[in-house]
């Protein structure tokens, strides 16, 4: 077999594998692999073995990532329910002044069917178990309140992802870890990591950690695009109070008074400079219905927000963010700890999503090629038929 014949054979072989997984193997990647093995002096069998090894590793890596995103999407949105009773309104039709007096509640899309049929009722949410002692519905007042909420929420999620106190692969494992930390039954290594994280967090060192930020932002974006924003029509003093106590903030204030050391700097960093620790009354970003009171917010008192046909939370937040930045004088704007970076990251990703995905895959491919070049050839038992028959094994 001549060099030209071997090049042609290898090129077709690579293209045949790629055709079975067109969403993973882009044209740029196909061409890169072809160029890598063109005019090689290795035997045809050795080249095919290397190509199979690369394809196998590349497929597994990308399929694993896809499975993760699919699992996350299903967690937040496992329903294609069509709303029948809750009215939808386009937020772009509302003036900033109108939104200042509205109460906003965000929820995973999978709960929309229940709300549409039964209305919204107080619960202790998945993220509030073991924290909030009584059922209620949390909400934010006005655009600034919504944006403050997401600044806090991003920090809260960051803490959950990295604080050794919350480590565990299941909710049960995580709760066992939390219980150990509460009781003090932790190792010296865990204690050191915990203290280090507290300092790391309160000093906002996380903003310099690109890997940490990327993990957080990608997770939060997945949650946002699978969630809804709802406006609630609430009855003052009957369903909520403006002087409602934030129990978690009250605990922090009580602890500060007891220790006479001031507000816990970690809690202050979590709540942000826009939160008022001179009073236990809930800030506008963290309001709630009267805890423990059994109420029902009927479907006709709920409105689902949209923006130019899109109903996901990120699209709503981005509109609010832009509205806030353009309509509120800069000197009067809240200084967010992490929200600005999040919006910037997602917008850059959205604008370059296709190109970025291709670059990411090309980078992964280069790493695989380098690995294979630097190690001895592994005999691969994979054959082309493996990919043609079962590409997602």
Please give the largest β-sheet: 6 strands, mixed
Task: Output mean pLDDT.
Answer: 84
Percent in helix: 40-55%
What's the number of helices?
A: 15
How far apart the termini lie comes to 33 Å
Give structural notes.
- The protein is α+β, with helices and mostly antiparallel strands.
- The protein folds into two domains: about 5-75 and about 355-390, no CATH class; about 75-350, no CATH class.
- Helix content is about 55%, strand content about 5%.
- It contains 15 helices and six strands.
- The chain has helices at about 5-20, 25-35, 45-75, 95-100, 110-120, 140-160, 170-185, 190-200, 210-225, 245-260, 265-270, 315-325, 340-350, 355-375, 385-390, and strands at about 85-90, 105-110, 140, 225-230, 285-290, 300-305.
- It has a six-stranded mixed beta sheet with strand order 1-6-4-2-3-5.
- Helix 1 runs antiparallel to helix 2, helix 6 (about 140-160) packs across helix 9 and helix 6 crosses helix 12 (about 315-325).
- The longest helix has about 35 residues, at about 45-75.
- The model is unreliable at about 355-360 and about 375-393 (pLDDT under 50).
Task: Explain the layout of strands and helices.
Layout: H1 3-19, H2 27-37, H3 44-76, E1 87-90, H4 96-99, E2 103-108, H5 112-118, E3 138-141, H6 142-162, H7 171-183, H8 188-202, H9 210-225, E4 227-232, H10 247-259, H11 265-271, E5 287-288, E6 302-306, H12 313-327, H13 339-351, H14 353-374, H15 384-389
Parallel strand pairs: 1-6
Antiparallel strand pairs: 2-3, 2-4, 3-5, 4-6
Structural descriptors:
single chain; globular; alpha+beta; 6-stranded mixed sheet; 393 residues; 2 domains
């Amino acid at each position: 077999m001549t060099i030209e014949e071997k090049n042609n054979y290898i090129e077709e072989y690579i293209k045949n594998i790629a055709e079975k997984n067109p969403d993973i193997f882009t044209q740029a990647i196909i061409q890169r692999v072809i160029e890598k093995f063109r005019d090689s002096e290795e035997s045809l069998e050795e080249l095919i073995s290397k190509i199979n090894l690369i394809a196998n590793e590349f497929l597994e890596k990308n399929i694993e990532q896809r499975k993760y995103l699919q699992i996350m999407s299903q967690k937040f949105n496992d329903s294609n329910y069509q709303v029948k009773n809750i009215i939808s309104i386009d937020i772009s039709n509302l003036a900033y002044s109108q939104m200042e007096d509205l109460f906003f509640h965000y929820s995973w899309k999978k709960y929309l069917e229940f709300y549409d049929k039964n209305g919204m009722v107080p619960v202790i949410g998945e993220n509030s178990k073991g924290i909030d002692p009584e059922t209620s519905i949390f909400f934010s007042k006005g655009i600034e309140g919504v944006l403050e909420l997401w600044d806090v929420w991003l920090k809260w999620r960051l803490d959950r992802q990295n604080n050794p106190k919350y480590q565990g692969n299941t909710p049960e494992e995580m709760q066992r870890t939390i219980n150990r930390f509460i009781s003090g039954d932790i190792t010296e290594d865990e204690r050191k990591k915990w203290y280090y994280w507290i300092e790391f967090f309160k000093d906002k060192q996380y903003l310099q950690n690109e890997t940490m930020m990327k993990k957080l932002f990608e997770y939060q974006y997945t949650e946002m695009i699978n969630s809804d924003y709802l406006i609630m029509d609430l009855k003052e003093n009957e369903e909520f109070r403006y002087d409602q106590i934030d129990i978690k903030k009250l605990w922090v204030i009580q602890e500060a008074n007891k220790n006479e050391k001031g507000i816990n700097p970690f809690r202050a960093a979590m709540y942000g400079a826009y939160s008022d620790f001179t009073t236990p009354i809930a800030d506008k970003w963290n309001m709630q219905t009267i805890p423990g009171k059994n109420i029902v917010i009927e479907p006709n008192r709920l409105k689902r927000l949209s923006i130019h046909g899109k109903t996901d939370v990120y699209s709503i937040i981005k509109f609010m963010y832009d509205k806030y930045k353009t309509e509120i004088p800069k000197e009067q704007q809240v200084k967010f700890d992490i929200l600005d970076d999040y919006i910037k990251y997602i917008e850059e990703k959205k604008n370059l999503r296709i190109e970025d995905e291709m670059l990411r895959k090309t980078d992964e491919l280069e790493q695989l090629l380098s690995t294979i070049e630097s190690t001895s050839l592994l005999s691969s038992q994979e054959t082309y038929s493996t990919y043609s028959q079962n590409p997602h094994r």
